[in-house]
Design goal:
The structure is a homodimer. The first copy, chain A, is mainly alpha-helical. Chain A has 22 helices and 3 strands. The longest helix of chain A has 29 residues. Chains A and B meet through α2 and α3 of A and α2 and α3 of B.
Chain lengths: ~500, ~500
């Protein structure tokens, strides 16, 4: 790298040190992928040992005290920090952030968190299976307590709250006040929209979603679509796993997974396009900055914006199905012969308030997230106890989604996140949805008639726009700044609401 | 481990240190498997960096100077070394051997070897493609020179020769004199046997080997057979790769590969059974000694004995096909309806002297190996120069196999081994064949009517015998000692010759 040679030695040392750690992390990532996708069941114990060893080697590197000295030297060097958007300044900002977070937790708290969440995950799985919330409640209590201690170690701004300190680990700068400011108007309008849709006397037919289609054919179909929108299979793979995800080692080796059920090609396609969106982001990160923040994704919500954009803004659009319907017919033949492009498009956009987040449609999904955000915020503030969680949960499901929760297994025990100590994580899903709509509006304003392009199978103009505006900058901007830079406005709920209303009301004959 | 607690601290340190290094090696192994079987093509450069980083971490551990102190302390401790077959004594013997070999080469020779073979491999590939031996000859010259220097660093016993020092890296204690002593009578008798077979007026029909069978059906068939002989798919996988191999991370996660061609189910089955044999050995190693020599395989020739035993002694036997023929019919139906069990058995045992080692049959394979052994020994002694290799190669192919070599690409350029600096490796293949026959005779003598068991699909008695006699001892004995202990005799060529003559002469109507 010629750039490193002109930098002071401390910066070159930091660069080398972090690239080395990042290379090790990419090895751990491959082992994690293999564990989910390839590993035979009896390999688990040894795999845990391999991952623990790598985690230890990575931890040693990320808490190496030399980092503090190198950082201090660099931070005092105007030539590196004068322009806060320079590669060096971006890297220094993020290395500082990572180092401070990695060294702020006392070792005994790290151990206690790891031991408690490891047991709590197992207790949660048993409690969910037995629909026995009382079994999980004391573990959630412990996790809340540990999370508060963790938040205190990290600290938060005076006007903030403990939730902010935890959320910052998933999304730099995300605060409860910011999230609530965006979520509250969205929630109010979504509840009204879903109510209107459910009152329609002409909801779309569900026929497409109930077809039985051979899984081998579904697989060929979703591979073709993901390649057509731009996923580069020379730099990635698609496999199956019970929960779809996007992983890999670096931009040129990205591993997607999806899932198949005979009677749910819509889910297979949606999952594939979702992970493809994550994968396109990773494949588009700048190769020359591999192993540094400058070459990395921003955070979870911008990542989710990319997956949601391809899944929903593209893959559930009328124009997409104009292009895709003949391909569907080509792959499934007579089985789909009776369904028009319009019928498939409408079926792919059915809305149905339900109990389970991971099965929710585009309109109701965010209501599931808001419930979790409001509850975890209250738990951390001390406004809600673990014992009172089920009744609070069920009340919100009635209020926001109009559904009665018949059991805690289908209610507050459905998600693994809290048992893992991941408080502050859920809102990144909804922020991602909001960013996706706002980015898509900006792209459309700049690129012109996107639907006419999609109808011809032309996805490259949109992907190029995303590459240039979102992928190439890596982690130069935080989410909020990136949004303002790319769209000209701070994040608001309006684009997502416009998108949903303009699409869904006509489908429901309203 | 309760055993480690009673040991002196130096032994516990060695154990911990080597288990840690072995865990890292198992991670490198998984990355290597993934590279061959799963990785998308653009992932190569990054994967090389990941593997280089792990190699560096492993090298640091295997040359850690504390090992020398720990070893000295332990070797002076009678309680550890009094019984040379105790777990501790076995581990100390092998750790000593590994440490001495790892530290005997000067760093600059290691670098020169690595750089030269890296370029030589690429030059070899080009030379083979262009059938241009002159291009490769100077590289082979360099490799011979470096190999001699390498051998001098390792050293060899007074009555030995440079080849021995290199071969010892693949097979502890293997010497050229030992190999020649076993090979020479084998070669003389094999040449006569192959001559007789080729003179037969009633060779077996090749019809089975020319059938076109769908690859998906072939895959289901070979999976069923490998599971039936004992491969545990909860502790392993089978995938495809261009060159079949057996890899994995430890006994409970063994990764086999095989290959398929529409018109060669015989190759797919043979490759699968071969790798299954390697996999059964690995799955049978003692779990409680994971990450230590006591829990590891002996060396390459004993490993090859296990693969060859299942591929040839079992998988090419008449009794195996009595059991397997109905399964073949079940999987392929009408396509194989015209072929009797006898016809398939005979076709699976066709002998045909040929140019290419990796395509050779059971009878001629060892002649290919002997040619390579004699030539590499002469190259290292200085009795043959790289420039004279092609004519020496072609002469031996005429003498031993009766075939004329039409081009160096199909002659002395066919194997990658020498370009990688792997001199002293080839004979382990033939030693493996010899051990397989001698082990199989011993098992049959102890277990009774093995063919009657195989005809019923009962492979467990044989596997249990191998588990107890070969797998469970791990690396307690070297190859030669293990052979004497298990069979009561030193290794000789007689069992393999008996096996081949008793099987092949009747098939050829002789």
């Amino acid at each position: 790298m010629s750039t490193t040679q002109t930098h002071p030695k401390a910066y070159a040392d930091l660069l080398q040190h972090h690239r080395d750690a990042s290379l090790l992390s990419s090895t751990a990532s491959l082992l994690g992928w293999d564990q989910e996708v390839m590993m035979p069941p009896n390999g688990l114990a040894h795999r845990s040992n391999q991952l623990a060893q790598l985690a230890q080697l990575i931890h040693e590197r990320s808490t190496d005290p030399r980092i503090a000295d190198w950082l201090s030297a660099c931070e005092a060097d105007e030539s590196l920090t004068a322009d806060p958007r320079s590669d060096a300044a971006v890297n220094l900002r993020e290395w500082r952030r990572d180092y401070d977070r990695a060294t702020k937790l006392p070792a005994e708290l790290v151990v206690e968190l790891s031991q408690t969440t490891s047991r709590a995950k197992a207790e949660w799985a048993e409690a969910r299976k037995a629909d026995d919330y009382a079994r999980f409640a004391p573990w959630l209590d412990q996790i809340i307590g540990l999370s508060k201690r963790q938040a205190e170690c990290y600290g938060w701004p005076e006007e903030g709250e403990p939730w902010d300190a935890l959320a910052d680990g998933y999304e730099a700068g995300m605060t409860a006040a910011y999230v609530a400011g965006v979520f509250t108007p969205l929630r109010e309008k979504l509840v009204v929209l879903v109510d209107r849709l459910m009152g329609s006397s002409t909801p779309p037919s569900n026929a497409f979603n109930e077809l039985k289609l051979p899984i081998a054919q579904q697989e060929a179909f979703v591979r073709r679509v993901s390649a057509a929108v731009g996923f580069d299979y020379r730099s990635g793979r698609l496999d199956t796993s019970s929960h779809p995800f996007c992983s890999g080692t670096h931009h040129a080796d990205i591993r997607l997974t999806t899932r198949f059920a005979e009677d749910n090609v819509n889910d297979a396609l949606g999952s594939t396009l979702h992970e493809t969106g994550h994968g396109l982001y990773e494949q588009g990160l700048p190769a020359e900055h591999l192993g540094t923040p400058r070459g990395s994704s921003v955070g979870l919500s911008i990542h989710e914006s990319q997956s949601r954009l391809w899944e929903n803004q593209v893959g559930r659009s009328r124009a997409f199905w104009t292009w895709c319907h003949p391909i569907l017919v080509e792959h499934f033949g007579d089985a789909v012969a009776g369904l028009s492009a319009d019928a498939v498009y409408a079926a792919a956009n059915r809305v149905s308030p339900s109990l389970i987040r991971v099965e929710a449609d585009e309109a109701t999904y965010n209501l599931h997230i808001m419930i979790r955000f409001e509850l975890e915020r209250a738990l951390l503030k001390g406004d809600l106890t673990a014992a009172d969680l089920p009744s609070a949960w069920n009340e919100k499901y009635r209020d926001y989604l109009g559904v009665d929760v018949p059991s805690d297994a289908q209610g507050c025990l459905q998600d693994i996140h809290w048992s893992m100590g991941a408080l502050g994580y859920f809102p990144t899903y909804t922020l991602g949805n909001l960013y996706s709509a706002q980015f898509f509006e900006a792209a459309a304003a700049e690129l012109g008639n996107l639907p006419a392009m999609f109808a011809q199978g032309e996805f490259a103009p949109l992907l190029d726009w995303l590459r240039k505006n979102i992928h190439a900058p890596g982690n130069t901007y935080d989410s909020a700044d990136l949004c303002e830079k790319v769209t000209g406005h701070p994040l608001t709920a309006d684009p997502l609401l416009r998108h949903l209303e303009e699409k869904l009301l006509p489908i429901y004959g309203l």
